[in-house]
Write a structure and sequence with these properties.
Layout (H helix, E strand, L loop, with lengths): L2 H12 L7 H8 L3 H13 L4 E4 L3 E4 L12 H15 L4 H15 L15
Antiparallel strand pairs: 1-2
Length: about 120
């Protein structure tokens, strides 16, 4: 696992708002406690809202917002097609897929792609 992948995984694990020990985090990503200490120091120095110290643990203090996602036309088409197929499910998964599809299509600059809001019921 590269350092970038490790940092991403650490951030994902810490998004739960809980206090995590270096030993726990190290076991998750397969590195030593000392490496976690260095990673946490680097993350804090670069502006990631991680707080804590050796011996106590680390916590992500505020939600981390990712930058906007850029999709190609083909990727967007694949995403919308997949959501459309899952939307056919009558259960909670279908309802969630319809809601996600509506959110995505309302952000698109092209008119006419948004599903009917009545379909979300």
């Amino acid at each position: 696992m590269s350092r970038d992948q490790r940092i991403f995984e650490l951030i994902q694990r810490m998004r739960d708002g809980r206090l995590h020990t270096a030993a726990e985090l190290g076991a998750i990503v397969g590195v030593s406690t000392r490496t976690i200490w260095r990673d946490m120091a680097m993350m804090a120095a670069t502006g990631i809202p991680v707080e804590g110290e050796r011996g106590l643990g680390y916590i992500l203090r505020s939600p981390l917002v990712l930058p906007p996602l850029m999709l190609t036309a083909e990727e967007l088409e694949a995403l919308l097609e997949g959501l459309a197929r899952v939307s056919e499910d009558a259960g909670q998964l279908g309802k969630s897929a319809r809601a996600v599809r509506f959110k995505i299509t309302t952000l698109l600059p092209q008119a006419g792609l948004a599903p009917d809001p009545d379909d979300l019921a």
